[in-house]
Specification:
Number of domains: 1
CATH class: Alpha Beta
Radius of gyration: 18 Å
Strand order of the largest sheet: 5-6-7-3-8-9
Bound molecules: adenosine-5'-triphosphate
Order of helices and strands: EEEHEHEHHHEHEHEEHEE
Structural class: alpha/beta
Shape: globular
Oligomer: single chain
CATH architecture: 3-Layer(aba) Sandwich
CATH superfamily: P-loop containing nucleotide triphosphate hydrolases
Largest sheet: 6 strands, mixed
Strand content: 25-35%
Distance between the termini: 41 Å
Length: 252
């Protein structure tokens, strides 16, 4: 039996006012994929995620998620926005942040016990359940990213969209994060924006390159020439096949 497509984009273009950002995009993402979206700053990665969420309408062409419109599929999508776009200066606990993922489902602005159970389960999933009552701003960068993933998981999604979940975290936390994501990938499709090709190429199944146009590659084809084509040679490659020690960089 053929694997169902979670995302189907046909001849899609998008412009902010008169400014073309994405042009003639054709993209399919099969169920169970774990793909990373890469490309230079301003290439259109976040815009593509917003189109998938139905927050922006395409200027032309079509987008289907789970065979229907992005707006109708939104309940099946978990979204973690870019860390830098979040303002959590107001006093909220880890549980409060996780519960925000249930806002679309809760009635009359009140969380039910089912919402609370879902938030607790999501926090357990990312190993942050012991921090429920901790103030969000008191957490480290890696812990915050995990809570934000729990928020996205709270809606029990079938498609998880993550916008640069590895920004602001060290290599160890990044490894933990990818272990969590690999586990989640057994039950959901994952699309993740990252500039960190060196690490993601070891764990993801395909790479979606976004630079006004969109090209999909299996991870095995990533090499220096391709990276230069995507980033115009400007990417600061982060290597994960070496370790640092007192003697400097050591290759595995
Ligand atoms: N609300 C907006 N109004 C007008 N232009 C916008 C808006 N949001 C983004 N853009 C422009 O669209 C282009 C693509 O932006 P987008 O945020 O999708 O890029 P990106 O690939 O996610 O970049 P980065 O790697 O820096 O996060 C950029 O040129 C940006 O300036």
């Amino acid at each position: 039996m053929e694997t169902p497509q979670v995302v189907e984009i046909k001849n899609m273009s998008f412009a902010y006012q008169a400014r073309n950002v994405l042009k003639d995009v054709n993209l399919t993402v099969p169920q169970g994929d774990f793909a990373t979206i890469v490309g230079p700053n301003g290439g259109g990665k976040t815009t593509l995620l917003k189109l998938l969420l139905g927050l922006l309408p395409p200027s032309s062409g079509t987008i289907k998620i789970f065979g229907t419109s992005p707006a109708k599929s939104r309940v099946k999508i978990g979204y973690m926005p870019q860390y830098s776009h979040l303002d959590m200066q107001f006093p909220v606990t880890v549980m409060d942040v996780a519960l925000m993922g249930r806002l679309a489902r809760c009635k009359w602005g009140r969380y039910s016990s089912r919402d609370r159970d879902a938030a607790a389960t999501a926090l357990e999933e990312v190993k942050m359940d012991t921090f429920k009552e901790t103030h969000f701003n008191a957490l480290s960068g890696g812990q915050k990213q995990r809570v934000l993933i729990a928020r996205a998981l709270c809606s029990e999604p079938e498609l998880l969209l993550l916008d640069e979940p590895t920004s602001n975290i060290d290599q160890e936390s990044e490894k933990d994060l990818f272990n969590i994501l690999q586990r989640l990938n057994h039950r959901m499709t994952i699309l993740l924006v990252s500039h960190d090709l060196g690490f993601t190429s070891q764990v993801v199944k395909s790479v979606i390159c976004v630079n006004r146009q969109v090209v999909i590659h299996p991870t095995t084809t990533i090499d220096g020439t391709m990276i230069k084509d995507i980033y115009g040679g400007d990417l600061k490659m982060i290597r994960h096949d070496h370790r640092c020690c007192e003697m400097g960089h050591m290759h595995d």
